[in-house]
Amino acid sequence: MKHWDIEDISTRDLFEKTLKIAKVGIYELSVASNTIYWSGVTREITEVPSDFVPTLENIKYFFKEGNCREQAIQALHRAKEHGEPFDLDVEMITAKGNQRYVRNIGYPEFRNGNSVKIIGILQDITERKRIKFDLTRKNQLLGFAEKMAHIGHWRIDPVSQKFTWSENMYRIADLKIGVPMTLEKYLKHIPGEDRKKILEHIDKCNETKIFEPFTHRIKHKDGSTHHFKVLGEIIVNEQGEIDQIIGTSQDITEFVHQKQELIKKNQQLNNAEKIAKIGHWRWCLDTDTAYWSDNLYEISGVDKNIKVDTEVFLNTIFHEDREAVKANMENAVATRNFEPIVYRIQLKDGTLKTINTVGQAITDSKGMVQEILGTCQDITEQTIKEQELIFKNQQLNLAEKMAKIGNWKWNALTNEVQWSDNLYDIYGHPKDADLSYEVYLNYVHEEDRPFVERKIGEAAERGVYEDLNYRIRLQDGSVKTIKSTGIVNVAHGQTIEMLGTCQDITDQFNKAQEVIQKNQQLTFAEELAKIGYWEWDVVNDHLTWSDNMYRIFDMEVGTPLGFENVVEAIHPDDRDMFRAHAEEFIAEKKFRKFMHRIVYDSGAVRTVELYGEVVTDRAGNVLKMVGITQDITEQRMSEIKFRGLLDSAPDTMIIVDTKGLIQLANKQAEKMFGYKATELVDQHVSMLVPNRLWDTMEYHANIFFKDPKHTGLPADLDFYVQNKAGFQIPIQVTLSPLVTSEGLLVSLAIRDITEQKQSAHRILETNKSLKESANKLKTQNKQLAEFNHITSHNLRSPVSNLSSLINIYKTEDDSDLREELIEKMESVTNHLTWTLDTLVESLVIKNKTNVALEETIFESILQKTEDMLAAQILKTEAIIEHDFSEVESAMYNKIYLESIFLNLISNSLKYRDENRKPKILVKSKIENGRTQLEFRDNGLGIDLKKNGHKLFGFSKVFHRNKDAKGVGLFLTKAQIDAMGGKIWAESEPGIGTSFFVNLNH
Asked: Which residue ranges does the record assign to the PAS domain (predicted)?
């Protein structure tokens, strides 16, 4: 204490505590006596025992041997001899062997021109060095990430319009690193239509102080256009003026159609400055008065003129943290120990800040706390950064796993190796096992180990790490391929450490090897099949050919080509056709295969066939065509010979593939079907077959392909084809398999058997006519018998009844009774007349031979029926639906069809179920080649088991209905029978009834 003259004990204690917190030690060298004084903190830094006596001889060994020690000794010498002060950052080795970095500041004191003593401080800056080193390492990793993600960082000073770019920003913009950049220079690399977009964006930023993400394009030196996505943030000062704009740009050319979040806003420099915001305070308990430094007022957002007490202080605390802070203060008073605490304060505008507070309780002689001294630090930005760092580390770990990347660091001095978790997983090395450079080398494949050792040795010597690709062998024997990138950190000409990343590229390597093998196989296949691959850049008129493509055209491999170069090699007669095809494909954006001839310099002519496709951009503009060309000269000659044989065949011959597509057709086929052979090629054979026979065709095709052999369609199969005019021709077909290099083909030999069919038809028609005559006689006999039965049954009773009434009338004298008998006789006579009229009408219908036919539209007939039954439909709230989509009309007697519709729909209304609304559906369809009508309702239904045999009988009713007479179905059947049709019913009591009518026309 002899070196200090401090009267205020509190101030001295605070000063010493501040030095201890700041890890600052004091030393003093007396030049005359060569004695050295070390403060307690200096001893703590050097980790010497309490009885250690520092001397000029022993203190030099605390400095690391080499440059550090020499630098320290020279600085001390110059201070003693020449009075030069010094300020050094040096590396020390403590008495316990620990490595530390210290800042050594010394000031010599001279008297009468002679050095008397040197007073200095020794500050432990090990943590600062570590942070700086970690920051450097993080920046290096960030640099790697920037390269991998094609990201660059930038900052704009709005006053000077100066741009500050990261190195990778220059790389992705394809500009020389370090060249000063301004907005004007940058816009020179932007396409014209995007310049306006950028300038408008800048104007909007100046107006709103908000930076909205946007994208733009940029031109590289090679003329290529790249797409940038830009994120930024505008930082304003306290006056609301723009201080600077910071942001990131990412080259998203490969992902231009995907929206991705590029990078979180980063303000590391500003945040680091804000973390240093510190304020001091003193709280006197007896007066409950707090004394704050100016900066603490600033941090807390409190007016400096306000007197601070406990209430004012607690009111600045965020309400959720207030009780914890209050409890901590009470605990400090009770225990005389102030525990560090982190809490939040809320400014008047609602802003929250995070505060870190440390303090010390000052007691009186009785041990009672009189006041508490302390320091507050605004760690809001640091807290946010910690959370963001955690998030980014999580993202980095996830990205490493997704990309199979791990990072590493090797200390060349200590041989210590550090791996990220994912690198352990890549190498399959247990995380709790020892790790060193030798362990790492043991994983390297024995064949690659000398190469890796040599490259790492070269990196250590030259200070440059070259990317390495090598294999590793895991403990289970499996082999992986690794790509390693890194940097070398050198200090004083010596390699200190290396750090970088390793990526498992096994899959990519295997795929690359597979591609190489496939390319070799493809080259062999090209030569064997006489195939060449090509790509035509339509925009720039540049052709890229495979080697075999050049061979097919008899050109030197690698010759630069454009469209007209190819045209010159084409046979003169085919050149116009070739150009026309190219123009057609560009206009229609669709490529169709075609053939043309080429002429060699020797005069030889070859035939080639082209297959390809047209590639367009998203706007539909044609960019290029890609495809293959095959030399089919020999196949073409064989085809010509084969076609000659086909054309000489007497029958129609068609060749189809397994998909049914026509490949060849001979002259006889052109005559039979009326198509040219070129019209038939690549068309499905079904175009020559009527729709009704498609299922039959498919059935027999499936049978043939199960066992391909020479066979014909069954002799009893009635099979037809149709020509271009739609005329159907009966045929006999023989199928034969043709095995070719391109796969199985089928030869169809088709013979027209129209004459045979006509002869057979005439015989069948004669037989049919005889059968119809016999059936007609049987039907007439049956109808005659039925009529006799109806007549005898329905006339006998009323006639007998009338006869009895007349006899009674003759013998009766009572005039009233005779009047009543006359009324009854009139009733019987009316019924008899109605019966006779009905029977006569049925006879007229059945015997009418010349019934007029006309095209009747079903929907019109239904509409007329609904109009006639409008009152009943309205009264019953009936719903009548129809479906005539399959058949809309028929050739029929219109009066009969109207009667059929009226009788069947009125029956549905008459015999409705009173418990539900009538619902009637009238539907048409084709059934077995005949037009069929269905009348379906949800009425009472009929018990067909009980009444089905008399459903269409004369005067038959099946429900109690006062309006029922049993004549409608009787006459309907008579009309349908007269037209050669058929009517039947399906019904279930309580569900409803469906009547089906085959119109036979």
From this structure: 638-691
Q: Where is the domain boundary, 817, 844, 871? A: 844
Tell me the C-alpha distance between 100 and 87, whole Å. Answer: 17
Q: Does one domain contain both 644 and 602?
A: no
By CB atoms closer than 10 A (0-12, 13-18, 19+), residue 555 is middle
Domain of 808, CATH number, reads: 1.10.287
Q: To the nearest 10°, the Cα dihedral for 549, 551, 553, 557?
A: 80
The radius of gyration of the chain from alpha carbons, rounded to an integer in Å, stands at: 54
Please tell me whether residue 604 adopts helix, strand or coil conformation. coil
Q: What is the DSSP letter of 303?
A: -
Q: Are residues 835 and 924 in the same domain?
A: no
CA distance 911 to 958: 9
Task: Give CA–CA dist 704/719, Å, rounded.
Answer: 16
Write out the residue range of the structural domain in which residue 497 sits. Answer: 426-504
Q: Are 235 and 181 in contact (CB under 8 A)?
A: no
What the block records as the tokens of 41 is 């903190």
pLDDT in tens, 967-982: 567 778 878 887 788 8
DSSP conformation class of 465: P
Give the pLDDT confidence of 888-902 residue by residue, as tens digits.
999 988 888 888 898
Question: pLDDT tens, 155-172?
Answer: 888 777 788 888 888 888
Q: What is the C-alpha to C-alpha distance for residues 93 and 91, in angstroms, rounded to an integer?
A: 7
In the chain, the number of structural domains is: 8
Distance, in Å, from the CA atom of 18 to the CA atom of 11, rounded to the nearest integer, reads 10
Q: Is the pTM of this model over 0.70?
A: no
Q: Of 357, 385, 413, which residue constitutes the final position of a domain?
A: 385
Which residues, listed in sequence order, are joined to residue 937 by a DSSP beta bridge?
Answer: 920
Give dist(CA 798, CA 821) in Å, integer. Answer: 14
- 824 assigned to some structural domain: yes
| Cβ-proximal residues to 135 (8 Å cutoff; 6+ apart), any chain | none
Residue 828 placed within a domain: yes
Structural element, H or E, at residue 807: helix 754-811
- Written as one letter, the residue type at 950 is K
CA distance 689 to 676: 17
- Please tell me whether residues 748 and 762 are part of one structural domain: no
